[in-house]
Amino acid sequence: MRPARRRRAAERAAAAALLLVVATACGSRLPESDFEHGSRTPAPRGGAPIPVGIVTSATSPVGGDTFTGPGQGAKAYFDRLNARGGIDGRRVEVHECDDGGSGVGDNTCVHRLIDEDKVVALVATTALDYAGAPRVSHARVPDIGGQPIGAAYDTWPHLYGIYGSSAPRNGTPGWGGKLYGGTEVYRYFKRVKGARTAAVVSYNQAASAAYARLVQRGLRAEGYKVVTEQVDFALPNFRAAAADLKEQGADLVFDAIDGHGNAQLCRAMDEVGAKVVAKVTNVQNWTSTVPEDYKDSPRCRNALWANGSSRDYDDTRNAAVREFRDATKALKTHSQWQLEGWAAAMWFTDAARSCARSGITRACVDAFVDRSRDYTADGLLLPVSFEPLPKPPKTRRTCLSVARWQDGRGWVAQGDMNSTCFEVPQLPYEP
Fold this sequence. Notes:
There is one protein chain. This protein is of the alpha/beta class. Helix content is about 35%, strand content about 20%. The protein folds into two domains: about 10-180 and about 320-370, Response regulator (Rossmann fold, 3-Layer(aba) Sandwich); about 180-315 and about 395-430, Rossmann fold (3-Layer(aba) Sandwich), CATH 3.40.50.2300. The chain has helices at about 10-20, 70-85, 105-115, 135-140, 185-190, 205-220, 240-245, 260-270, 290-295, 300, 320-325, 335-355, 360-370, and strands spanning about 50-55, 90-100, 120-125, 145, 160, 180, 195-205, 225-230, 250-255, 280, 305-310, 395-400, 400-405, 410-415, 420-430. The chain is globular, with a radius of gyration of 21 Å. InterPro entries: Leu-bd (IPR028081), Peripla_BP_I (IPR028082). This is ABC transporter substrate-binding protein.
């Protein structure tokens, strides 16, 4: 099996498009001359704390809870680690920074964490506009387990997204400005659920429509009949879209709309009696808030399916998941992004432990993560690697984690993610 770079590289486009539907975030980058910094700043020796940084767009225009999950998971991991003695007797000291969802704010956070707080690494970065990425790379600060909302983790060296990358990462996104995504999600529902007709719902807004076209292309490559439904962004008529997808016999529903729109769409589907095999969502919406978010649509709610590259946070049969849930039981809600933030913190810890004898420096931690081949965070992630390929692959064997929502049970894992795998084409797109 080839290393899984990411369940579907196009999720970057998904996250960015859906967020841009409901918000516009802009900023400017600082001059590269402001970014000069040594690459081997060590953490203090002896029993001094090991400083790490977490950048989160906690107060971004798209809502206060949108980006907080990975940071919550990472902090929970470090809290438990410190309670058990830290790393070689040294406590991990977490420095948080909210960039406000803007490029200017992100650059400010990066400058503070790297140059003032002297962090050894960034962990579980979740930024709407990661404008500071070039500065992080230039300073050779490892950024470990970040969420690839944009193209930064397929562009810059020393940045290690939670799903891995096989791109050259030489300062240009992907290969010559193009990223590639597989069709494994569509293959899964075709093979496992027998789906043949898929509806794609989008807004009449540029980012939403662009992502919808990407989904449609992948579906057609897998032989689906594709039903397109576009609603007005300002005054969406979801009932009409739901009625049409019912009339055309859609087995699946994919979307390029925001969370609020999804809830309205599901309500409309219940109202018109549209029954589907699956209403498919992504890892960002894989949360415990489903009963509240979809309270008015019980039929559609119980047709929700999520897919990603990490083990279902509700699958407490797994020992690593049980540890995560035990450490986060005080949180009001749970999500897949929290589990992935936990995995990112574990990844940093494994790297730091490997460096304990020689000195926990940026360079040593970076070298450990860069050498990662099939890293799994104790089985919480599909195997993650950073082995650049000179040319993009035409096909790839890719695995995925799949879960469906069931009232009274939560998210129920569908098979084992390490064996739910398909050899699928890789389709190009521009970030």
